[in-house]
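Z., the sequence and structure:
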Amino acid sequence: MLLLLPPGNESSGPADLPPANRSEGAGGGGGSGSEAVVVPVVFGLIFVVGLVGNSLVMVVIGRMRCGGGGGGGAVGMRSGSPTNIFILNLSVADLSFLLLCVPFQATIYSLPQWVFGGFVCKVGHYFSSVCMLVSIFTLVAMSADRYVAVVHSKRSACVRSRRNALAAVCVIWTASLLCSVPVAQHQVLTRHPAAPNSTFCWEMWTGASRAGYRVTIVLVGYLLPLLLISCCYARVLYHLHKKMKNMSKKSECAKRKTAQTVLLVVAAFTICWMPHHIIAMWVEFGSFPLTDASFAFRIVSHCLSYGNSCVNPVLYAFLSENFRKACRQVFTCRFLFPPLPRDTASRVRLEIFSTSHV
């Protein structure tokens, strides 16, 4: 059976619909197959995991900033560090991406038409694109921050300031808002001749403008960030490797753990976003087949891109021993997070790849 490719940001619009499927709803994407149940359930699991993980990160940093959790002022002061500002911004972007994208995308697979109106069609897709880019650009900023902190630690104080971090966050959001404007301009409600009583939320472009925009997004939103992240962390690993010769066993173990985390960060970004951009380029410059296999590939690409917003809190927060200590400090439940000794709590710092480990 030839499955219908649900319309989304990778589809070309009504022209993409295969003739064999136009009698089945012409692009609604859902309703009859098992995917109408399975896909929303999978998306729901991703949504819940990402919601809990990112919310927990935001709560921990927020409570620390307010002096919550019994840790005193020392912890609250460190909550405004550049690293924590970027972690908080990443969690906000990832949480917003999940909230704005996953529920609507799930309905595309489960409902026969778009039911949320023209405003949500434009604004929802626009801010989904914005949050996606903010998340990616923040990952780049965090890798640059780690590079400066580790490789140029003696001169990092003047660069890694709270003011500069906040300025970087403002630049990230501004650039993402501007880069996503074409999405809002071209996302419209439309109908298909085979389903004149149904409406669909599609991107409608003219000429070669869409191809140019797609290529730009792949370059700016994937290839260039991947290159920058890889270069920054490669320099970090090289710097750590050079310093391993004259260090204690404990420090060497910490360095190796940092190296493993760095590799996980790069691998997660590469794997989670590669299928999404492969499909975008395939649709644009090739002939994307409408088969069961391609349909499954598209679903996997969605799950991986959404999954990146679930993985980020784990990689950038929960793998950090200091963050886990902060959780114990903020959530003083004696069953899950026994409270820290007072002298230990005063030294907790929410820093990943801490410069004390290099």
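Strands lie at 187-192, 195-203. The chain has a mean pLDDT of 77.

Let me know what you think.
H.
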